[in-house]
Design brief:
7-stranded mixed beta sheet, 9 helices, 16 strands, 3 domains, D-Maltodextrin-Binding Protein, domain 2, single chain, Alpha-Beta Plaits
Length: 304
């Protein structure tokens, strides 16, 4: 039996990611930044962890929640839209909750939206009553309609949802929107978002009861460190004591600074981790507030 599916193996962590698709490379890059490396199998479906006992399964995005539920893998990188859709399907059919979102990952962003013909004057969800809505996300759409107290007909399609109104299959659609270019090409416009989606780390509802628990905790610590500093910079500067408050007001996204007194001077030396963009304009504002000797440094790794 392949080590990817052997239920007896409980001292290694198995993570499912997309074999191909828009989440595949960012997921690998995030794990590599967390210090993981692998040896890939000949069939390119399994990666054996070398730096840590953490293996990868390369699968279809839609399969990942089910693999977690069945215990074939322990964790998975998947779109929130896929995770919630399959969770909704399990709830509708009375199956127990077996997986949940562990971490938002900050890439693969999109939204699940109601889109209507461009000529419509959108007046709100009540306008959908009695309409046909085409979607590949019936469970999330059904839950949203229920919350809006709207009754509509859900037309389930597996692809090409955006052309359903032109083909007469539906009046409006509920589909993923990124740039909106595909909707515009089909004379549709998004009018209402029902879900903000992105890539997430999914895992089981129940905690691990063996060596995987320690591995998962280590992985999460490292990933949190990578995610925390993704757009962060270390800012170092000096400022007079009486200017510190004004300077720090210009850094609302900064961690509490490290402050050192300078010998023979009323000035202080500060360094702080800033999580927002450190633009030239921002540096000029800091200088006008009294900061000097401003240095912006990249942060390669951070472990809380």
């Amino acid at each position: 039996m392949s080590p990817a599916v052997n239920p007896a193996v409980r001292d290694r962590l198995r993570i499912a990611i997309q074999k191909s698709g828009r989440l595949s490379e960012p997921a690998r890059a995030l794990l590599a930044s967390a210090g993981l490396s692998w040896r890939e199998s000949r069939d390119k479906l399994f990666c054996y962890g070398e730096s840590l006992p953490v293996d990868l399964l390369l699968v279809r995005d839609d399969d990942i929640p089910g693999l977690i539920a069945d215990g074939v893998c322990d964790l998975g990188f998947v779109g929130r839209n896929v995770l919630l859709e399959q969770a909704g399907e399990r709830a509708e059919t009375g199956k127990p909750e077996m997986f949940r979102e562990w971490r938002a990952l900050g890439f693969g962003g999109c939204r699940l939206s109601i889109a209507v013909p461009e000529g419509w004057q959108w007046q709100g969800p009540a306008q959908l009553a009695g309409r046909r809505i085409a979607t590949t996300y019936p469970n999330q759409l059904r839950a949203w309609l229920r919350a809006q107290h709207v009754q509509a007909d859900i037309v389930v399609l597996n692809g090409s949802v955006e052309i359903a109104p032109r083909l007469g299959q539906a009046d409006v659609i509920c589909d993923l929107v990124s740039s909106g270019a595909t909707l515009a090409a089909n004379q549709l416009k998004p009018v209402c978002d029902i879900l903000q989606s992105e890539a997430v780390l999914a895992g089981p509802v129940q905690p691990f009861g063996d060596a995987r628990a320690e591995l998962a905790a280590l992985l999460l610590r490292r990933m949190d460190g990578v995610l925390r500093i993704r757009d962060s910079k270390l800012l170092m500067f000096q400022a007079p004591r009486d200017a510190i408050d004004e300077v720090m007001q210009l850094l609302p996204d900064a961690e509490p600074p490290t402050v050192c007194a300078l010998d023979g001077s009323d000035a202080l030396a500060l360094q702080t981790l800033c999580h927002g963009a450190m633009t030239w304009q921002r540096l000029e504002d800091l200088k006008r507030a009294g900061a000097r000797g401003l240095m912006v440094l990249p942060v390669e790794r951070m472990l809380a």
